[in-house]
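Q: I have 288 residues here and want to know how they pack in 3D. Can you give me a structure?
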Amino acid sequence: MTVKLVTDSTCNLPPHLMALYDIRVAPVTIHFGMDAYKADVDIDTAEFYRKIAASGILPQTSQPSVGEFAHLYNTLADEGADEIISVHVAARLSGTCQSAALAASQVSKRVQVYVVDSMAGSAPIGWMLADAAKLIAQGWPAAEIVAHLENQRTQATIFFAVDNLKFAQMSGRVGRLTGVLSAMLNIKPVIGLEGGQINVLTKVRSNKAAMRQIVTLTKERVKNNSVNVGVVHAQTPERAKTLMELAKAELNIQQAFIAEIRISLAVHFGPETLGLTTYPFQGDVNAL
């Protein structure tokens, strides 16, 4: 049985691994007024931030359509896929899983598609896909891989700090009052994504305090267990390096990468966002 992997453009994973595992991507659409762009296809990260700075407008997003997913699944079936594992951003945050599930039902006579709600976004999706790719190589059936991923996703962690809550408030990810108070007090909210839902966990007064708090929260969750780490950032690479060093001093890290957060997520939290994510280590320390 040939099993293929699909995700959406909220996934963070180093490009060479995306290519190595032949992970296909259904792009989210970014809307600047009447202009629409496929994330990382029609618009790159630099242009995305240039447009925000020039217009002062927060763009909107829309998930890949049912038709786009069906086309991608049919393409993979044409290439010989018998089964597809399609892993996506948390269903509580986006309609992407729903679109994928509807498309899966449309193509069910051609190819079996398993849609997995990552209950996360960004690097944890990437680590889930890397995990799945290794199991595919070991000959695991797709259904067993999906069950494994659904167990592992509960152990993934995402904690991040945003410069302010203006973007999250405008996109509806946090309440208006919380966003206004954050801006007035010039505080740095620390946010967690748990069970597919975003929660403001605490607020601190500086970027340094935010990084320390992110590492502390992560350590409380993962303890001394072996983990893979992804540090993601929005236009703040030096702080990302500092956060990685803080994480290495406290966590039992086996594999790690630093990446610019995908613009499909950055649209909701804005520039200067900085996050620390973990996923349970599954072996193969040479993967990166």
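Q: Anything worth noting?
A: Residues 207-222 form the longest helix (16 residues). Residues 173-185 have pLDDT under 50 and may be disordered.
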